Amino acid sequence: MDENTNLPEQIKAVYRSLFAFLIAFCIIAIGLITYIKNPNLFNNDSKSAETESEYVAIPQDDDFDKIENGIHVRTGFVEAEGLMETVNNCTNCHSSELVLQNRMSKERWIATIRWMQETQNLWDLGGNEAIIVDYLVTNYPVIAKGRRSALTDIQWYELED
Ligand code: HEC
Question: Domain 80-139: which topology?
């Protein structure tokens, strides 16, 4: 008789463990399905699949970095040492025009780069920084503004009434 009175308790225990097993199974299944559908959800790396799939490759044919008359056609930069370092690092966020319309001393170029790094998410240029700054200072130096040279060979004309 002792066994009989214990029977409902045993059944309850079986049900309880079955129930616990079912819940555990559901949790694991949901986790697995979520992981299979989006593996990057569990990736702590901030660069998720989303940013990778948004990356659009720029088609590059033979003309992409064409140089014509000493000018890099795509950007307008003059061909000189450091051209590609400058093209690759300085035309990603804004047009090359923004670079070209500025003429600065070495210190001002470095200060501009620091400003972009501090406020505009410009990356650390590493060893390219010196190459880029040299390229800019050499090819786009500050033009001393002074009195213009005297005009020669002028064809004067009379104003009519
Ligand atoms: C991460 C993005 C980014 C990159 C890469 C970048 N810049 Fe800029 N830069 C900016 C932003 C944003 C501005 C502000 C644009 C504006 O005012 O419209 C700016 C402005 C400038 C200006 C104008 C500054 C002024 O005082 O008006 C110059 C010159 C310049 N950048 C040169 C460069 C050079 C040289 C490089 C390569 C070393 C470079 N940029 C790379 C983001 C960038």
Answer: Cytochrome Bc1 Complex; Chain D, domain 2 (1.10.760)
